[in-house]
């Protein structure tokens, strides 16, 4: 007989990556909770539609701000916590870590990583400052002895294809980086450029070996039918998704 399914709570579950996590969790049969900011008159209709969709899928939506007592109450009801907060909220995860420490029941926490393997890359300073915050969260989780999985997603295919190739734009001009004219970008505009430099110029994603505690995701899910970039481009030619852009402030 199948054991009791773990209950999964997602912070940031209505976001770019979070919504995929929530739908995957529910489709695999896990009781799924989403902790979300309260809906009000300023809430975009896209989020309201998504919340309706989550409700119809059987997701439990918990509305609230990031207050200790409120998040502690929800964390006590679940087994696994996943956080997909955007970069500006990375340090807010300290509140989740505090609540997990007090609750004492969480079997696994996945913090909002989902980018490069921040313990192993050495990018330009604007991106390093960005990563330092995510690294701090990793160290806090380890110090608190919370069971964890750190996920390095590297580049989300659709996100970067859209960002670099802009298939939704019909104009004939293209921007070519590196014409020799040095520009000084103010923060946070210097972050995306230094991310692109790290990935595409330095090749940071390919510059390290996996250690004995690391696992390549394709080995974890060998039966999963991955979408190749070729297949993605075919889809984008016909029906490009709206552009996505991560927030940096
Ligand atoms: N590897 C890649 O290609 C790639 C690309 C983009 C992002 N990322 C990483 O993936 C992670 C998630 O990024 P994302 O772009 O998916 O995030 P996002 O969509 O910008 O935000 C996720 C959710 O966080 C909540 N949120 C946003 N602003 C908030 C605020 N001011 N106060 C409280 N809650 C707020 C919202 O949920 P509610 O409204 O429901 O509360 C939002 O839906 C980040 O760590 C990012 O660095 C990786």
Automatic annotation (TrEMBL):
Signal peptide boundaries: none
Occurrences of domain NmrA-like (ranges): 4-191
Pfam families: NmrA (PF05368)
GO biological process: lignan biosynthetic process
InterPro entries: NAD(P)-bd_dom_sf (IPR036291), NmrA-like (IPR008030), NmrA-type/Isoflavone_red_sf (IPR050608)
SUPFAM superfamilies in UniProt: NAD(P)-binding Rossmann-fold domains
Name under which the protein is recorded: NmrA-like domain-containing protein
Organism: Pisum sativum (Garden pea)
């Amino acid at each position: 007989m199948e054991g009791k399914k773990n209950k999964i709570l997602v912070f940031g579950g209505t976001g770019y990556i979070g919504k995929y996590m929530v739908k995957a969790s529910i489709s695999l049969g896990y009781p799924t909770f989403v902790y979300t900011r309260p809906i009000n008159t300023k809430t975009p209709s896209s989020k309201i539609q998504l919340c309706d969709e989550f409700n119809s899928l059987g997701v439990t939506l918990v509305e609230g701000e990031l207050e200790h007592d409120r998040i502690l109450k929800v964390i006590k009801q679940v087994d696994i916590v996943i956080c997909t907060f955007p970069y500006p909220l990375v340090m807010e995860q300290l509140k989740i870590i505090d609540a997990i420490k007090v609750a004492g029941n969480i079997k696994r926490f996945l913090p909002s990583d989902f980018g490069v393997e921040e313990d192993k890359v050495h990018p330009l300073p604007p991106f390093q400052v960005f990563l330092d915050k995510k690294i701090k969260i990793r160290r806090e989780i380890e110090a608190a002895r919370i069971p964890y999985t750190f996920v390095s997603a590297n580049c989300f295919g659709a996100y970067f294809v859209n960002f670099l190739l802009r298939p939704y734009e019909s104009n004939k001009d293209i921007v070519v980086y590196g014409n020799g004219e040095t520009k000084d970008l103010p923060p946070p505009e210097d972050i995306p450029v230094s991310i692109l430099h790290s990935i595409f110029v330095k090749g940071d994603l390919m510059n390290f070996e996996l250690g004995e505690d690391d696992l390549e995701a394709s080995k974890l899910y060998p039966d999963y039918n991955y979408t190749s970039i070729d297949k993605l481009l075919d889809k984008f030619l016909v029906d490009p998704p709206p552009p996505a852009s991560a927030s940096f402030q």
